[in-house]
């Protein structure tokens, strides 16, 4: 029963981190259409990247505590990247003009990679959740 709650919680945390990555990726489409400015994007990155990094650390810590080696190995590359970004404070960037923003590391490409990553981890967590749920359903009731 506890594994159902574990996988449901891990799935929810992954969905939240994925929503942040999708939001940051969609902001770049809005930038190309002129709906948002570069300052608004860099402000959103400065505000939401630390939240996403904390969510990723919690997810990896939960995988470590649960003893799910495959899930931990799946999360490890993104965890290392996120810790590097957090330690170097690379998420803190402000740009007023488009050329200043383009000189920085491609946040759009990173957001697309993170969106794909969180989609894969959500798929993994949802299959593990369904497995735990079906195991719970097939247990004898005595």
List keywords for this structure.
mainly alpha, single chain, 84% helix, 142 residues
Number of helices: 5
The domain tally reads: 1
Element string (H = helix, E = strand)? HHHHH
Percentage of β-strand residues: under 5%
The helix content, as a percent range, equals: over 70%
Structural overview:
It is a single chain. With 142 residues, the chain is mostly helical. It has one domain (2-138). It has 5 helices and no strands. Helix 1 runs antiparallel to helix 5 and helix 2 (38-66) runs antiparallel to helix 3. The radius of gyration is 18 Å and the shape is elongated. The two termini are 15 Å apart.
Topology (elements, then pairings):
Layout: H1 2-33, H2 38-66, H3 69-88, H4 98-103, H5 107-138
Helix pairs in contact: 1-2, 1-5, 2-3, 3-5
Concise overview:
The protein is an all-alpha fold and 142 residues long. It is built from five helices and no strands.
């Amino acid at each position: 029963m506890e594994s159902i709650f574990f996988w449901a919680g891990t799935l929810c945390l992954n969905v939240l981190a994925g929503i942040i990555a999708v939001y940051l990726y969609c902001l770049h489409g809005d930038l190309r259409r002129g709906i948002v400015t570069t300052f608004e994007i860099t402000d959103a990155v400065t505000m939401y990247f630390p939240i996403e990094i904390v969510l990723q650390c919690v997810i990896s810590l939960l995988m470590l505590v649960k003893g799910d080696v495959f899930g931990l190995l799946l999360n490890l590359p993104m965890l290392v990247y996120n810790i590097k970004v957090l330690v170097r404070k690379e998420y803190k960037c402000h740009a007023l003009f488009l050329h200043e923003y383009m000189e920085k590391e491609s946040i759009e490409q990173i957001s697309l990679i993170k969106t794909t990553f969180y989609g894969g981890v959500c798929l993994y967590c949802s299959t593990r959740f369904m497995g735990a749920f079906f195991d719970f359903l097939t247990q004898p009731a005595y």
